[in-house]
């Protein structure tokens, strides 16, 4: 009797887009990664762009060539290459997403391809939804698959106590729906990339 080959777990990377002092994005991401741990279908990683500290794009060659000359680019490439799915946690700045998030996307090309992308947005009355609309256009251009389910958090400041985001039932339900869709799409897209299912 032959045993089934072992299958590597799906890797989900949550990216904190805001880098400004006083941001609440990290607390939202911490809540979400705790939900991922309870979900138990992903190996979860958190990347805080503030801690990652990517400078404004500084490679001499186009990213599609993958001729990286900087250690920070090679490190970022390894993180993205190893990930099967992404969740971008973003506020809305002037109707769009923060510049550090666009910079992080622009560093790479091939590493993003054929992987699902989801968004958690937060803000005031609009809950950051315009940032998500713009972000989906960018990730689609990188040949990622932006999934439909999102988590939108209006008036986020009212839900942060002592630096921790206090999610409501609607946020937990939206996160569960997002994770279900990410599992389905990440599994299929891993096969598309030639990996094991």
Mean pLDDT, all residues = 94
- Main sheet specs: 6 strands, parallel
Classify the helix fraction into a percent range.
Answer: 25-40%
- Strand percent estimate: 15-25%
End-to-end Cα distance: 21 Å
Number of helices: 6
- H/E element order: EHEHHEHEHEEEEH
Uncertain stretches of 5 or more adjacent residues: none
- Gyration radius from CA atoms, angstroms: 17 Å
**Structural classification:** alpha/beta
How many strand units? 8
Query: Given the C-alpha coordinates, what overall shape results?
Result: globular
Topology:
Elements: E1 10-16, H1 25-39, E2 42-48, H2 49-52, H3 71-81, E3 85-90, H4 99-106, E4 116-122, H5 129-141, E5 145-146, E6 151-153, E7 160-161, E8 164-165, H6 169-192
Parallel strand pairs: 1-2, 1-3, 3-4, 4-5, 4-6
Antiparallel strand pairs: 7-8
Helix pairs in contact: 1-6
Descriptive report:
The chain has 197 residues and is an alpha/beta fold. It has 6 helices and 8 strands; from the N terminus they run βαβααβαβαββββα. The protein has helices at 25-39, 49-52, 71-81, 99-106, 129-141, 169-192; strands spanning 10-16, 42-48, 85-90, 116-122, 145-146, 151-153, 160-161, 164-165. The strands form 2 sheets. Strands 1, 2, 3, 4, 5 and 6 form a 6-stranded parallel β-sheet that branches. Helix 1 (25-39) packs across helix 6. The mean pLDDT is 94.
């Amino acid at each position: 009797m032959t045993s089934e080959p072992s299958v590597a777990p799906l890797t989900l990377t949550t990216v904190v887009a805001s880098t400004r002092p006083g941001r609440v994005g990290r607390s939202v991401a911490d809540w979400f990664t705790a939900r991922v741990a309870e979900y138990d279908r992903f190996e979860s990683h958190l990347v805080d762009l503030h801690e990652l500290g990517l400078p404004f794009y500084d490679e001499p060659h186009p990213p599609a060539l993958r001729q990286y000359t900087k250690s920070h680019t090679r490190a970022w490439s390894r993180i993205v290459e190893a990930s099967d799915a992404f969740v971008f946690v973003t506020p809305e700045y002037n109707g769009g997403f923060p510049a550090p998030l666009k910079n992080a996307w622009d560093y790479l090309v091939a590493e993003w391809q054929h992987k699902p992308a989801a968004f958690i947005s937060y803000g005031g009355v609009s809950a950051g939804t315009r940032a998500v609309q713009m972000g989906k256009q960018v990730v689609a251009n990188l040949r990622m698959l932006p999934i439909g389910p999102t988590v939108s958090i209006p008036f986020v400041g009212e839900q942060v106590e002592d630096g921790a985001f206090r999610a409501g039932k609607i946020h937990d339900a939206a996160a569960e729906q997002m994770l279900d869709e990410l599992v389905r799409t990440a599994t299929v897209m891993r096969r598309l990339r030639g990996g094991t299912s």
